[in-house]
Amino acid sequence: MDLIFSRILTGTTLGFHIFFATLGVGIPVLISLAEFIGLRKRDPEYLLLAKRWAKGFTILVAVGVVTGTCIGLQINLLWPNFMKLAGEVISLPFMMEAFAFFLEAIFLGIYLYTWGRFKNPWIHWSFSLPVIVGSSLSAALISTVNAFMNAPAGFKLVDGKLTEIDPMAAILNPATPSKLFHVLSSAYFMTACALAALTAFYLLFRNRRLTYYKKALGLTLSVALLGGILTAVAGDVSAKFMAAYNPEKLAAAEALFETEKGAPLLVGGLVDAEKQTVSYKIELPKMLSFLAFGNFNSEVRGLNAFPKEYQPPVFIHYMFQIMVASGVYGIAVSALYLFASWRRWKLATSKLLLWPIFLLGPIAIAGMELGWIFTEIGRKPWIIYGVMKLEDAVTTMTGIRGYFLAFLGLYLFIGIATIWVMVRFFRKRPVDRDPYYLEIHSDGGVPR
Amino acid sequence: MSKPEMAISILWMFLFCYIILASIEFGSGFLLFWARVRKWPHEAEEMIERYLSPFWEVTNVFLIAFIVGLVGFFPSAAYYYGTVLLLPGSIALILLVLKGTFFAYCHYAKVRHWAYYLLQGLAGLLLPMVLVSLIPVSEGGFVTEVDGKLVLLFEKVMTSPLQWTFVLFALLSVLFVSAVFLNFYATKAGSPVAAAKFRTVALNLGLPALGSGAFILLPLANVRPEHFLRIATDYSWLLLISGAFFVTAYMLLQKNRRAGWSFLLVIAQYAFAVMAYGYSHLPYLLYPQLNINDAIVNPVMYHYLMWAMVGGLCILIPGLLFLAWLFLFSKDYVKNGY
Ligand code: HDD
Ligand code: HEM
Ligand code: HEM
């Protein structure tokens, strides 16, 4: 019981943190881009965009920081044996990550409180760069630890004793390249989608047809398209990694029960784990073999090729599908919008397209969250693949259920309070009453 | 200096930076609330917010750096403390989340409701009281092994005089340190009205804070006599210096002169006191289960961690100086907020 609740508690904290953390990786990039364009084109509306995003960002960062501290302490509390081993082999990225946080935190403070303090506005813009480096680097470093859990490297375990420890090999383990690429690109993708959805919300429900919002849509959806394509490419690289190193995870993700040559890729489908069948699916013949190995006729091992105790649960198939679908959807919608607005079609800002853009926000967030849940549950029963099982890593303390309930209550409370506070903040300060906006549009709405 | 001593000294520095910065942050949080309740002039609130804006995120990272450093250099600390501190650690986390988010609501989202101020102020006071219980636990006697499982004797901790003297000391110190700092900040900002308020708090709490610190020695003599003896003999000179710093700082405060020096002296006072306590505690991290010589990480990892530390400090120190230059030593910012 305590094992289950330790897992659920870890998952809840991470799932909560990761939302704010992903925004923490992506928003600085978008703010920096907006300020860059604003300075370059001498268009103050982009500067206003950067300022307003930054205002909302400060609140999100605060939640990101405290929930991050939570997970940092909590993994020590809940998985002490894991951390003991990790401390010997993979503590280096944790330590470097702390310095990346410093970089981010220091320059975020500087960036936020020095608007207009320097004569040359590019100096202010340049402070956004260390923030981006710091947050992306910290995400990358923490992801190497997670990669290590999927493909441990850099040590040997002889009679329970660690030998031949090589911290660099542990960081640069086989899972690292695909993981970093996928985590970072998906973070930029998701953030851009979330901000585009927010803009669509104002256009749909507040009915403010300001040029300001059109510029915001163009910028966010361009980033979404680029990020989406990169994410898909990185996902393909991840799938090839998975086929080589975690084949049982791939089998579960694709609900492939029997080993097959020229295995088909499934789209959708209801899995019956007992009968080992998948109904209501669309099969793309031989595509799975191609996806996994780059060859249409390769053999892909099915779940039954692995001992029962090492098989991950098949329901991760659904999560995998939703994640991939969110990427495909995001690429399609953003490409359509950009094309339509390039050709100056009315469609671009019609309800017909704004609604799908609005939905893109929650869909991309779901894609990111489910991506993590899929890869983590897919590692079951291992906490470090092939080295340490979950039950050997968990704390010996009991009563974890109580802790889970306490933290769940805390996250619900904080989640609701944050939403409430943010909504209130921006409702009281609509764009067209922002002092800076009025300054820009003092001459009858024509941008200076 | 041996490898474990080197590692623990570095960790000590991060911890000490956290103690000072966190004291200022937690204490300011409470004073922010108090300033509203007691209807202090608005400037007092403004001073607090102006300092906290660019600094509070950095404060938190010192805590992270200390924890990852501890687990990196002494992996078994993760096992011992991780297991034992599940309950106090979780309480501290909940308070930390409440403190951080509610401060952000008040400050960044401009929510002016008193309940928000109260919550972040209270959480800020309770946090040091919970965090400090790590120290009495590390003195030994509160952790036992039953069937190979570590158990924290929670009731014994809660009824131990040592625990409560530490709690009292933490509470008073946090308010004292932050008041001394804010006195300096407000003086620099040219706001004598606000400075006077903070100075009064500092003067009222200075002696009780010192007294509660000295008082810790009594229950310590009971719980772990040999630790008490080492402080009282080998390291008493550190305590004496610490006391001298306090007296000087206190006199400067009373005369209302050199607010910056009095803050530096108070930092030095705490540094020496913590050193005296820390050195005499060594080599144990958790008495008697865990000592730094056995717990030190393997030499390969040690080597890499040290290099990461050197590289990291090369970023951190200039970064912090730049931050301080912009927001602490810049007359314009301190005075006008930009
Ligand atoms: C949301 C993002 C996320 C991130 C960034 C990570 N994980 Fe994970 N983790 C989860 C999301 C998740 C999860 C989806 O929430 C899991 C899967 C099953 C569960 O109960 O929680 C989980 C489970 C999980 C467990 C319980 C064992 C299990 O069921 O697999 C541990 C010990 C960790 N994780 C530890 C880590 C560490 C040390 C990570 C970083 C290096 C990490 N996870 C990254
Ligand atoms: C087990 C996994 C993780 C742990 C232990 C962890 C730990 C932490 C900690 C301690 C903080 C607070 C640092 C501070 O005070 O600034 C933090 C914040 C942050 N984390 Fe995580 N983290 C994890 C997963 C991730 C992942 C996967 C990402 C990337 C997608 C990420 C990105 C960030 C970012 C960008 C911040 C800064 C907060 C912000 O700017 O919003 N973290 N994390
Ligand atoms: C479009 C096609 C996509 C493919 C083919 C794909 C493929 C994959 C694969 C194979 C993994 C598992 C990696 C492993 O466990 O080793 C994974 C994980 C993940 N995916 Fe995707 N993905 C796609 C789109 C997306 C999108 C759009 C998002 C975010 C919105 C996303 C977010 C994630 C995350 C956060 C993880 C966990 C981190 C990781 O393991 O890299 N993915 N993806």
TrEMBL record, chain A:
Tell where it localizes. Cell membrane
What's in the keyword line of the UniProt record? Cell membrane, Electron transport, Heme, Iron, Membrane, Metal-binding, Transmembrane, Transmembrane helix, Transport
| Membrane topology, as annotated | Multi-pass membrane protein
Transmembrane region(s): 16-37, 57-79, 91-113, 125-149, 187-205, 217-235, 315-340, 352-374, 403-423
- The answer on whether this UniProt entry bears the keyword Magnesium reads no
Fetch the InterPro entries from UniProt. Cyt-d_ubiquinol_oxidase_su_1
The UniProt entry, under Pfam families, shows: Cyt_bd_oxida_I (PF01654)
Which PANTHER family is this protein grouped with? CYTOCHROME BD MENAQUINOL OXIDASE SUBUNIT I-RELATED (PTHR30365:SF14), CYTOCHROME D UBIQUINOL OXIDASE (PTHR30365)
Say which family it is in: Belongs to the cytochrome ubiquinol oxidase subunit 1 family.
The protein here is known as Cytochrome ubiquinol oxidase subunit I
Supply the source organism for this entry: Tumebacillus amylolyticus
Automatic annotation (TrEMBL), chain B:
Give the transmembrane ranges. 6-34, 55-74, 80-102, 114-135, 162-186, 198-223, 235-253, 260-279, 304-329
Alphabetized Pfam families for the sequence = Cyt_bd_oxida_II (PF02322)
The UniProt record lists the keyword Metal-binding: no
InterPro entries registered for this protein in UniProt: Cyt-d_oxidase_su2
Q: Which UniProt keywords apply?
A: Cell membrane, Membrane, Transmembrane, Transmembrane helix
Principal localisation? membrane
Quote the subcellular location field of this record: Cell membrane
Q: Which membrane topology describes this protein?
A: Multi-pass membrane protein
Name the family the entry cites.
Belongs to the cytochrome ubiquinol oxidase subunit 2 family.
Protein name, as recorded: Cytochrome d ubiquinol oxidase subunit II
In which organism is this protein found? Tumebacillus amylolyticus
Q: Show the taxonomic lineage.
A: Bacteria, Bacillati, Bacillota, Bacilli, Bacillales
